[in-house]
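Incident log, structure service

09:12 report received: a user says their structure output differs between two submissions of the same chain.
09:20 pulled the input from the user's history:
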Amino acid sequence: MSKIVSEDSLRRSLARMSAEQSQDWLRPQLLARVQAALNPPWILDIDTTMMSGGADWKINKHFSLRLIQADWVYHHFGSSAILSNSVSSSDNAKIATGAVVRF
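09:34 re-ran on a clean worker, output below:
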């Protein structure tokens, strides 16, 4: 890239074009940016399941202690047959404690 065009310069140039001319210029510019993602055989099939729970000990109206919070998230990627060498599922768990402040 030898030069960066300012946004104002681009807008002035596009304003001088007719609608047909600007579409003829813009279409190949946009397609060139997304063509790499459009070429492979994509099937997006993701199933997500989440379970969460916890217990708080109320100190007063505005403050509680979170004794325990447990989260579990499972992802299943159904397109693993197309995407070779990929992970077909993910199983994650988190246990936390903390403070809760209510406003």
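09:41 both user submissions now match this output. Likely a transient worker issue. Closing.
09:42 reviewer note: The mean pLDDT is 84. The longest strand covers residues 63-77.
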